[in-house]
Amino acid sequence: MLTSRLATEEDLPALRDLMALAIGELQRSFLSPAEIVASRAVMGVDTQLVVDRTYFIIEEDGVLAGCGGWSRRATLYGGDHSADLRDAALLDPARDAARVRAMYTHPDFARRGVGRMILGLCEAAALAEGYGRAELMATLAGEPLYKACGFTEIERTGSAPVDGVVVPLVRMGKTLE
Predict the structure, then answer these.
(1) In the chain, pLDDT over 90 holds for what percent of residues?
(2) 3-state class (DSSP) for residue 81
(3) Domain range holding 51?
(4) CATH number of domain containing 118
(5) Above pLDDT 70, what percent of the chain?
(6) DSSP secondary structure letter of residue 159
(7) How confident is the model at residue 80 (pLDDT cuts 50, 70, 90)?
C-alpha cells in the first residue's frame, strides 16, 4: 500500500538518488542520451520545497516509490543547481497558478499510481491555500500522466541549452476543483 508524508532535510540524499535513477531510466524512451545528460543539469532536488513543507514522499512499506510537490513560489522548474531558473518570489493565489514541481517515480514503481497520488496531494494542498489553478513544466515522459490527470498544454518549449543540447519540455496547466 502506498503511503505519503512530507519530505525532510534528512531525506535529501535518498531523493537525489531517486531523481538520478528516474531521469536515467524513465526518460530513455523519450530523449536521446545527450538530452538525458542535459536533463540532469536542469532537473533535480529543490530544497526550497522541502523547507516550505510542500514536498511529498510516497513510500510502500518504507521503500521510496516517488516524490513530488507543489510551490507557492514563482519557480516553474529546476533544481538547486540551476540557479538561473529560480525565482523565490511568492505567488498570489488570487492571480497566479500554484506550481507542481519535481515529480519523480522510482522505475520499479512506474505505472502503479505514484504520480497520480502526488498530483492529488499537490492539488488538494494548493486548493486549500486558495489557488484556483496549477501549472507545471512537463518532461515528455511525464506529459501522458499530466494529460490523463486533466492538465492541458500551454506551450511546447525547451530548456536553455546545456552544452548545445536543449531538453524538450511542455508547459501545462489545470483549473483546480
Answers:
(1) 91
(2) coil
(3) 2-175
(4) 3.40.630.30
(5) 99
(6) P
(7) confident
